[in-house]
Amino acid sequence: MAKTDRFSSEQSPLILLVPGLHNSGPNHWQSHWEAEISGSRRVELGMWDNPHRNTWVNQLNLAIHRAERPVILVAHSLGCHAVAWWAEYEQPGTDSPVVGALLVAPPEVEGRNVDPRLQRFAPLVGSRLPFKSIVAASQNDPYSSFGQSKRTARKWGSRLIDAGPIGHINAESGIANWPYGKYLLNHLIAETNQKRLSYDDAKSAKSFMATQDHHEGLWR
After folding, report:
1. Which CATH superfamily does the domain covering 14-219 fall into?
2. What does the angle CA 153 – CA 197 – CA 160 come to, to the nearest 5 degrees?
3. Beta bridge partner(s), residue 16
4. What span, in angstroms and rounded, lies between the C-alpha atoms of 53 and 70?
5. Cis omega before residue 123 (within 30°)?
6. Under DSSP, is residue 74 helix (H, G, I), strand (E, B) or coil?
């Protein structure tokens, strides 16, 4: 399927797709979006079957700063926790490229019955994300109760969306390219328009101040 022109302009954000454990296979909605949405790119986190938290955070950080344009993160499962830890470590300010995040089906990372690979991303980040975010959660996700998803969204300061009883919101959910998820993404992009203006203003101000500092150095 040909990619749409919805996100093709230079002023539109880059959609960075952040998969979870085992990456997202060909039937996963993230793979459909990568093929269908112009201006989208998958983050190569590496170590897909044996993730290392700081490696994933560093790879995500590299992809964000290589974008050289506003970024919206679209994460699934363990990728959501990589996004939260990136924000925790980087403490992005008003000039950050990241203007929003769609965080889908974040799993539990704490507890004795949790996969040890997920436990590497514990504890659950308790800080609010410094950009607009949506947590989309399923009512019957085998990797997180809906109550836990509520607590996660509350800690991250995210808007919680009930995506219905569709499991882990993955290829096994039978949702193909997940049209409702695209609706949420479009809504998030619309909400971040003002944020993108602020980002551009901050970049201009930063460039201006750097120029002023240079001139002042020459004048001393």
Report:
1. Alpha/Beta hydrolase fold, catalytic domain (3.40.50.1820)
2. 15
3. 41, 73
4. 24
5. yes
6. strand
Nearest to 188 by CA among 166, 146, 217, 159: 159
Separation CA 182–CA 115 (nearest Å): 29
Quick check: 33 and 177 in contact, CB under 8 A? Answer: yes
Domain boundaries, the chain: 14-219
Residues 59-98: b if buried by 16+ CB within 10 A, e if exposed: bbbebbeebeebbbbbbbbbbbbbbbbbbeebebeeebbb
CA-to-CA distance for 55 and 41, rounded, in angstroms? 19
Amino acid at 120: R
- Tokens describing residue 92: 């992005």
CA–CA dist 142, 76 (Å, integer): 14
Q: What is the pLDDT of residues 105-130, one digit of tens each?
A: 999 999 989 999 999 999 999 999 99
Average pLDDT over residues 86-94: 95
- Quick one: how far is CA 45 from the chain centroid? 13
What are the pLDDT digits (tens) for 43-82? Answer: 999 999 999 999 999 999 999 999 989 999 999 999 999 9
CA-to-CA dists, residue 101 to 2, 86, 181, angstroms: 24, 12, 12
Strands 14-18 and 71-76: parallel
Please give the helix or strand (H or E) that residue 86 lies within, else none: helix 78-90
In sequence order, what are the residues at sequence separation of 6 or more whose Cβ sits closer than 8 angstroms to the Cβ of residue 219? none
